Request: fold
Amino acid sequence: MTDSERIPLHFSSQSDIDEIEDLLHISVEPVRQAADAGKPPSPPRATIPVFSSPPPPPPPLRSVEASTSGASSSAGGLIGFGPAHTTLTEPVWATLKRDLLQVVSNLRIVVFPNPYRKDAGRALRDWDLWGPFFFIIFLAFILSYNASADRECRIQKQKPCTSLFADILTYILRKWKVCSIRSLYSCWYHVLLRIVVLAIIFTRENFPGKRPCCCSKNIHVSCEHFQPKVFAVVFAVLSAGAIVLTLNVVLLGGSIIFLQSLSVLGYCLFPLAIGASVCMAKDDKIFRSIVVLATVTWSSWAVYPFVSTAVPPSRKALAVYPVLLLYVSMGFLVLANN
Amino acid sequence: MAEEENYSNPLTALFHVLFKGSAIAFYILCSFFINSFIIQFVVTVFLAALDFWVVKNVSGRILVGLRWWNEINDQGESVWRFESLDRESLERMNKKDSWLFWWTLYLTPVVWLALGIVAVIKFNFDYLLIVGMCLSLSAANIIGFTKCRRDAKKQIQSLASQVVTAHVASRLQSALNFV
Reply:
C-alpha cells in the first residue's frame, strides 16, 4: 500500500471549517508574538500535501509550507477539495486575511525598529510583493494629485537629467578606481535607465498623441486634478528603479534574492508615502521640508541594513548610494509637488 | 453521462475567467468612457493583480490541482516549490475545467501582447506600462503552473515506477516464500 492510496480525495466541509479556524488562530498568534519575543516565525501556512511519504503539513489555504511544521495537528495531510461553494468563499476570506497579516508583519519588520533587522536575510523570509505594489500605486497617485501643469512638465525634465549626470559622474569615478568590470556594468544600467526615461519624456512632449493629458487641454478644466504623466513617470521610475538597484547589488557581487530585495525596496517606500500624504495637508514650504527630510531619513535608515549586508564590505558604499539617491529623488518630487 | 460533460466547478471557472476578461475589457473600453489615464491604469492593474491571486491560490488548486510558490529556506536560498494532487485525483479532475484553465491561461498574454503592439503603434507609451504589468503577471502564472505540471508528471512517473518495482519485489518475495 503506498501512501498515496491512504490520502483521501475529498474532505467533509465541516473539517475544512475546523482546520481553517485552527489555522486562523495559529496564524494570528505568531504575528502577535513576533512583536514581543523571539524571532518572528513565519505564520504557519497550509499546503496541498504531496502524494509521497513524508507526513504532509496541513491543508489547503495559503501558499508556502508551514515552517513551524507542527502547526495544525488535526489535519494530518489531507486535501480539502470540497464542493466549490464551500471552499471558495471561506478560504478566500481566510487567505485574504492571512495575506493582509503577512503584509503588516513584513512592514513591521522592514520599516519599524525591531531587533531582527540585524539578520537581514532571514528577517524578510516571507517576502511578498503586494505591499510594495500598493505603496508604489499610492505614492504615484498622491504625487500626481494636484500637480500643476507647467510645473510638472518642468520637474520631469529636470529630475532625470540631474540623475543622469549623477550616474555619469559615478561611472567616471568608478573607472578611475580599481574595480571589477561588473560594477561598471551596473553603472551602465543606471545610465541606460535614465536615458530611456528621458527618451520617453521627450517623445511624449513632442508627440502628444490622443492621450487624455491635461497638458494638452485647457488648464482651466476643473475636474482634471490628476496629472497622468506624473503618475506614469513615478510608477515607471520606482518599479524600474527597484529592478535596476537589485541588479546593481547582484552585479557588485552581492548575495541577494531578486524578489526579496524588490520587496524590501518597495516596503521602504512606506515612510515616503506617509510623508507625501502629510505634505498634501499643508502648503507651507518649511513644514514640507521638515516632513520630507524626516521621511527620507527614515526610509534610508530602513533600507540600509538590508542592502549593506548583502554586498562585500568594500563595495558597501557603491550599493547603498544609488538606493539613497532614489529615495532622495523621490523626496524632492514630494517636496516640489504642489 | 451528462454530469461529466458539465463543468464541475462553475463558480471557480467563472472567477478564473472573470478578472482576466474584465481587465482586458476595461483596458479596451475605458478610453471611450473615462478620460483619465490614472483610473484606467489603477483599475486595470488592480484587476490583473486580483486575477493573478485568484489563479494562483484558488482556481489552480480547484480546477487542476496544482500549486506553486517560492520560499526562502534557512540557508537564505530561494526555493521554488511545486505541489500537486496524487494521480487518481488528477485523473478525476474534470476535463472541461482543465481545458478552460490552460487555454485561458495561455491565451491571456497573447491578447496583452497584441494590445501592447497596438499601444506602441499609437505611440502611447503610458499604456505600455499597463500592458507590461499585466504581461508580467500572466507570465509569472504561466511559468509557475507549467513548471508545476511538469514536476507533477515527473513525480507520477517516478511514483509509478516505484509502485511497479515494489509490486514486483513483493511478488518475488511471496514466490520465494512458497518455495
